[in-house]
Amino acid sequence: xxxxxxxxxxxxxxxxxxxxxxxxxxxxxxxxxxxxxxxxxxxxxxxxxxxxxxxxxxxxxxxxxxxxxxxxxxxxxxxxxxxxxxxxxxxxxxxxxxxxx
Length: 101
Hints:
Layout: H1 3-20, E1 24-27, H2 31-36, E2 43-44, H3 54-59, E3 64-68, H4 72-82, E4 88-93, H5 94-100
Parallel strand pairs: 1-2, 1-3, 3-4
């Protein structure tokens, strides 16, 4: 198994654990990317809007799985929200979550 497949498998296992805990999927892609397709039931907040939506995200009072197109923006969102005490993981590309639903 190549390293990329192994990392994807580990990420999918972590996503499943978070979904079992009732996690909310937070898609941080642009509006255009969201309109092209997204995970059913996901919440959509564009990455640049995350700081102004922190109270809304905290009010969910649930673990979060951040997703985007490649994992880079969701990684930024994860770092920001984690530093504010939110239980969050970087789910990488949004399609990873769809594999688990």
